[in-house]
Amino acid sequence: MSLARWLDFLYPPSCGLCRTPLRDGRYLCPPCRDGLPRIEKPYCIQCGEQIEGIVADDVLCSQCRGLEFAFDFARAAASAQGPARELMHAYKYGRQVHLHRELALLAEEVWDDPRVSAQCDPPWILVPVPLHWRRQRWRWFNQSHEIARILAKRRKLRCEQALRRVRHTDQQTLLNRTERLANLRGAFRLSRRQRRVQSLRNKPVLLVDDVFTTGSTAEECARVLIEEGGAEKVVVLTVLRG
């Protein structure tokens, strides 16, 4: 019996949502896992937002039409509502770090998208969105890095902390997309190590974050990865779509 199973036997965990006792090494019970609001077709091929109604598979949502993006496209596994939002809130703000594996397993479902799964040669390099050191010290961990690390291990891919956040920005809740982009300009740079080794040059990058909302953070990170890091392309992978 594995150490995890022994620990489950001695200190049985409970489901992160319904608190049902568990003994299978997981932190969500099967009904709660199945009940998370997955994003299914049709969705915007650029930002991944769910679209209601019967539309073509290559549809753009009204928010993406006429805009240019540094990243190729963004995909999320589930909508940031109901139990999914509760789970992410417990992970990020309740400091329930053990939930990172459940969220990574949810994010891994994005590999059903052939635009993600078809990239094999060269393989993806996973890059988590960084936190400013002040916020990471307050939170104790970088939620995106923990998710990216599990994804990389499961998919046998490389995970590199290639970005650093050099400027602490104001809260963006009340800002529109244009204001958010202006607020984030210059907030991210390549890490010192990445500037030295240049391991992203001409490589495809999966930018990993917890939630995609307006795409302003992803846009600025992708711009830096391409312009400064020389990445061939950047695709955004998140657990939730806000």
Secondary structure: elements and pairs:
Elements: H1 3-10, H2 30-34, E1 74-79, H3 82-92, H4 100-107, H5 114-117, E2 125-128, H6 133-139, H7 143-155, E3 158-159, E4 163-165, H8 177-184, E5 188-190, H9 192-197, E6 204-212, H10 216-227, E7 233-241
Helix pairs in contact: 4-7, 8-10
CATH fold-level assignment: Rossmann fold
The CATH first-level class comes to: Alpha Beta
Give the termini distance in whole angstroms: 40 Å
Global mean pLDDT: 91
Rg is: 18 Å
Low-confidence sequence ranges: 1-7
Number of helices: 10
* Beta-strand proportion: 5-15%
> At CATH's second level, what is the architecture?
3-Layer(aba) Sandwich
Total individual domains: 1
Shape summary = globular
Task: Name the quaternary structure.
Answer: single chain
Describe the structure.
- The chain is an alpha/beta fold.
- It has one domain (about 15-240): 3-Layer(aba) Sandwich (Rossmann fold).
- About 35% of the residues lie in helices and about 15% in strands.
- The protein contains ten helices and seven strands.
- The protein has helices at about 5-10, 30-35, 80-90, 100-105, 115, 135-140, 145-155, 175-185, 190-195, 215-225, and strands at about 75-80, 125-130, 160, 165, 190, 205-210, 235-240.
- It has a five-stranded parallel sheet.
- Helix 4 (about 100-105) crosses helix 7 (about 145-155) and helix 8 (about 175-185) packs across helix 10.
